[in-house]
Amino acid sequence: MDVTDPVQARAESPARAWLRHRPAGLLPDALLALAITGFAQADLAFHLDNSTPYGPMPAVVVSTLVATSILALRRVTPLATAVIVAVAIAGPMLATPLTVTLWGDFLPILVATYSVARHSVSARAFIGVAAVGAGLVVVFLRNPESGTVGNIPFVAVPLAVCFVAGRVLRARARSHSDDRARARQLEAEREEAIRVALADERARIARELHDIVAHCVSVMVVQAGAAEDLLDRDPQKARAPLRSIQETGRQAVGELGRMLGLLRGERAQLELKPQPGTADLAELVDHMGTIGLPVELAVEGSARPLPPGLDLTVYRIVQEALTNVLKHAAPTTAHVRLHYDDQSVRVSIRDSGRTGGPGGADTDRVGHGLIGMRERVGLYGGSLETAGTPGGGFTVTAQLPLEAGQR
């Protein structure tokens, strides 16, 4: 069994670490350079392309070896590769003419030209091809066999083809990369939109849960207090508030189950009731009256069907305001006024409870309920005003534009 010493693993040599994290494409390029080097050296040894020998053979071998082996770095450092190939082939020519071969000189020049065009930005690509061109000029001037007019097209055309092919393939790769980047950006924007939509939906469900729980718990607390007062004096009458507590509790559990079912994605398995609206305000007012909060409801203007979201918002504002009256005001009455006009619907809830003191109807009522109201009203571009009334009590007024609800 092979057991690696952690100390040895931490003391890994830089060479091994570089091999593990080597740039992509290095191994194929190294194999390519090795193959070209082998063919180039075999060409020199056996005169495979019938090139005319010039200069000392050791200098030709070293020049060819450098020009072909550096191709292993053609993608890692394409500009340096092109410059080294040009210098390795043309540099010794300045001292003495050397043999020029297909595998050892011309093929490395073409590979270096393509590589610098394919893997470098425009400025570096042109610098690289200029270095290669300068090297070829030196070769043409110093090597008698190469320096003929007939060889110019034979060298220039493949060189131009390699350079153009490199630039075209680079442009296509950049285009595909940009397309992938745009696709990733669109995917990220879509996921962000989904996250925002989920956050908005959770906030909406949180508001619904708050309204449901706050209303039901407040009603149950009031009824429990009433039942406690009646237990000693008239146990029979205590049954009515206890039954109301049971009914309200069942209603709260049902509503919570419905909302949690939506959160769990069980919409298809639930028998959902329609969301309440302005048509259910009379039932809400009657219910509040049975638990000890007399409420007067007045409708002004021409009543009309409202868009579902706006209809629910009006109902929830009235429900939350009356729940706050139960929780915070002294024994009192409440007045709900619903006013329709051509541009908006306005709802006002006013109670006559005393202000100040524990349980009083003061401005300290501002909490999650009123925050939720403001969010609901703001969603439809409306306005919400809350204030104490002269002589005691508290007023909540919301105005909602009908155009926003329809939109």
TrEMBL record:
Organism of derivation: Microbispora siamensis
Recorded GO MF terms: kinase activity
CDD domains per record: HATPase_UhpB-NarQ-NarX-like (cd16917)
One Pfam family hit: DUF7134
Entry EC number(s): 2.7.13.3
SUPFAM superfamilies, alphabetized: ATPase domain of HSP90 chaperone/DNA topoisomerase II/histidine kinase
Ranges that cross the membrane: 26-48, 54-73, 80-103, 123-141, 148-169
Catalytic activity reported: ATP + protein L-histidine = ADP + protein N-phospho-L-histidine
Chain ranges of the Histidine kinase domain: 314-404
The name this protein goes by in its record: histidine kinase
InterPro entries: DUF7134, HATPase_C_sf, HATPase_dom, His_kinase_dom, Sensor_HK_TwoCompSys, Sig_transdc_His_kin_sub3_dim/P
